[in-house]
């Protein structure tokens, strides 16, 4: 039975939902609330979907190179798994919080639904500073965290992947540790692993490639050709560096890139393969890159460019940055880069924002392909992976665009409506009785 429901009237609940007041979980909730209102979401489903299904926390003891034991906080949040096993990356960073991981897990739920892959949403985090840890310390941390999560992870339960500061090597250690405990090789327990261990061709580039695909789709909507467009990219890691490279290959002029050391701007366009090579030889950092002018990350976000790709972390496009922004199109490579208060400003300015849960879904899409290949024991060519990725991202872009038009709303809310309605329908069909 359809249920008329005012999401602002929390009196319908017997118990208040434990909604975090701080960003970024609150950022996720503000958009979710609008979608719930449009969909007239059943209040019981609303209450269920605004909480994580399960939260796991662990203290991870690691013998450091000094011989001393240091204990790290490890988190895994499963937001939802009605569509399938939960899926989502693991982030290593000193400022990881439970609120952040809860938000990232919920975004995974909506993202998987938007691109129509049969996964729920999860995310993991370990509070650590990988830049100050040796490879041996990182390996011991990863193996102990995986052992602690042995009953959580699993090819049919919960499947981790890379996120900020985690990579193919860390996924390989997860695969090995999980397999040691299960007494058999379980390569489908993790995605984003090396191709030699059952990883997929194209997974490394998948998120940036998806960003490129939806950028071209957005430019087409506003009748702009890539070769007439300038681009600025915040963050030069897995997502940002590949997005910059592929957008340049499509004819865009990439005028600025950045990392934690700041932005690097060249009005004539940067040579992205040369920048990538520089970073490789410079310990992973853009610091002291000389073929560009040094600017701040704030200056990069407000540059006079056609396309801005935030591909670093959450809460970068604040209200005041949005007021100063000049980009015509924003394509969110990062999760949660725009705070809700900035949404209204960007909408009023007529900026076309391709939201995170659509724009960066190329990663989880190819992770799904990787999981399918592992389970089949049959591996696809790069050409096949890229062709299917392009089709998935284009279909998702069109679905979101049409939904946004139908409800006369932004692409962000359109994407939430697509994602939340799919999960709610699965929940309705499955039922919630124990
Ligand atoms: N990897 C994936 O497949 C996916 C990632 N994402 C999201 O994309 C974003 C980036 O992830 P990913 O590329 O994997 O991460 P990486 O760790 O590979 O790269 C992160 C990049 O962001 C930079 N960065 C970090 N903090 C800041 C800051 N405050 N200001 C400017 N730059 C900063 C880093 O700089 P430095 O190296 O100097 O620290 C680095 O260049 C995250 O939001 C992640 O959740 C989304 C979907 C999939
Ligand atoms: O590839 C995956 O499974 C998840 C990637 C991820 O963490 C994300 O999309 O934010």
Q: Over the alpha carbons, how many angstroms does the gyration radius reach?
A: 21 Å
Largest sheet: 7 strands, mixed
**β-strand number:** 12
Q: Superfamily at the CATH H level of the largest domain? A: Leucine Dehydrogenase, chain A, domain 1
Order of helices and strands: HHEEEHEHEHHEHEEHEHEHEHEHHHH
The CATH architecture name of the largest domain reads 3-Layer(aba) Sandwich
Number of helices, where a helix is a run of at least 4 consecutive DSSP H or I residues:
15
**Regarding CATH, which class of the largest domain?**
Alpha Beta
- Cα separation of the termini: 21 Å
Structural class: alpha/beta
Low-confidence stretches: 1-5, 7-21
CATH topology of the largest domain: Rossmann fold
In short:
The protein is of the alpha/beta class and about 425 residues long. It contains 15 helices and 12 strands. The chain has 2 domains: about 10-185, Leucine Dehydrogenase, chain A, domain 1 (Rossmann fold, 3-Layer(aba) Sandwich); about 205-355, NAD(P)-binding Rossmann-like Domain (Rossmann fold), CATH 3.40.50.720.
Report on this model:
Helices cover 44% and strands 17% of the residues. It is of the alpha/beta class and 434 residues long. The protein has 2 domains: 10-186, Leucine Dehydrogenase, chain A, domain 1 (Rossmann fold, 3-Layer(aba) Sandwich), CATH 3.40.50.10860; 205-354, NAD(P)-binding Rossmann-like Domain (Rossmann fold, 3-Layer(aba) Sandwich), CATH 3.40.50.720. The strands form 2 sheets. The protein has a 7-stranded mixed sheet. Strands 1-2-4-3-5 form a 5-stranded mixed sheet. Strand 6, helix 7 (238-249) and strand 7 (253-259) form a beta-alpha-beta unit. The longest helix is centred in the C-terminal third of the chain and has 25 residues, at 382-406. The model is unreliable at 1-5 and 7-21 (pLDDT under 50).
């Amino acid at each position: 039975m359809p249920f008329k429901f005012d999401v602002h009237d929390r009196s319908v609940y017997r118990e208040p939902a434990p909604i975090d007041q701080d960003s970024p979980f609150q950022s996720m909730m503000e958009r979710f609330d609008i979608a719930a209102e449009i969909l007239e979401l059943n209040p019981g489903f609303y209450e269920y979907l605004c909480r994580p299904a399960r939260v796991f926390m662990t203290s991870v003891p690691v013998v450091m190179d000094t011989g001393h034991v240091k204990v790290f906080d490890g988190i895994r949040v499963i937001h939802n798994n009605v569509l399938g096993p939960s899926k989502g990356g693991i982030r290593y960073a000193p400022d990881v919080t439970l609120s952040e991981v809860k938000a990232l897990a919920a975004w995974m739920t909506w993202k998987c639904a938007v691109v129509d892959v049969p996964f729920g949403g999860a995310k993991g985090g370990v509070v650590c500073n990988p830049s100050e840890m040796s490879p041996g310390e990182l390996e011991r941390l990863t193996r102990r965290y995986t052992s602690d999560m042995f009953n959580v992870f699993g090819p049919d339960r919960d499947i981790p992947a890379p996120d900020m500061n985690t990579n193919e090597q860390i996924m390989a250690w997860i695969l090995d540790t999980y397999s040691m405990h299960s007494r058999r090789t379980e390569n489908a327990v993790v995605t984003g692993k090396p191709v030699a261990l059952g990883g997929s061709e194209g997974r490394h580039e998948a998120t940036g490639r998806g960003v490129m695909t939806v950028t071209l789709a957005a430019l087409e909507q506003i009748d702009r050709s890539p070769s007439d467009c300038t681009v600025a990219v915040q963050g030069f890691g897995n997502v940002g560096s590949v997005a910059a490279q592929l957008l340049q290959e499509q004819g865009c002029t990439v005028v600025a890139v950045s990392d934690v050391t700041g932005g690097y701007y060249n009005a004539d366009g940067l040579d992205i393969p040369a920048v990538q090579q520089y970073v490789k030889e410079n310990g992973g950092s853009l610091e002291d890159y000389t073929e560009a002018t040094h600017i701040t990350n704030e200056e990069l976000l407000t540059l006079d460019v056609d396309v801005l790709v935030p591909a670093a972390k959450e809460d970068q496009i604040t209200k005041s940055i949005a007021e100063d922004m000049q980009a015509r199109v924003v394509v969110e490579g990062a999760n949660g880069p725009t705070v809700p208060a900035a949404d209204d400003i960007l909408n009023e300015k007529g900026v076309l924002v391709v939201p995170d849960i659509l724009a960066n879904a190329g990663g989880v899409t190819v992770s799904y392909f990787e999981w399918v290949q592992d389970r089949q024991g049959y591996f696809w060519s790069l050409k096949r992976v890229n062709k299917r990725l392009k089709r998935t991202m284009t279909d998702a872009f069109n679905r979101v665009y049409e939904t946004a038009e139908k409800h006369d709303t932004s692409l962000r809310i359109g994407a939430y409506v697509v994602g939340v309605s799919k999960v709610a329908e699965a929940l309705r069909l499955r039922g919630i009785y124990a």
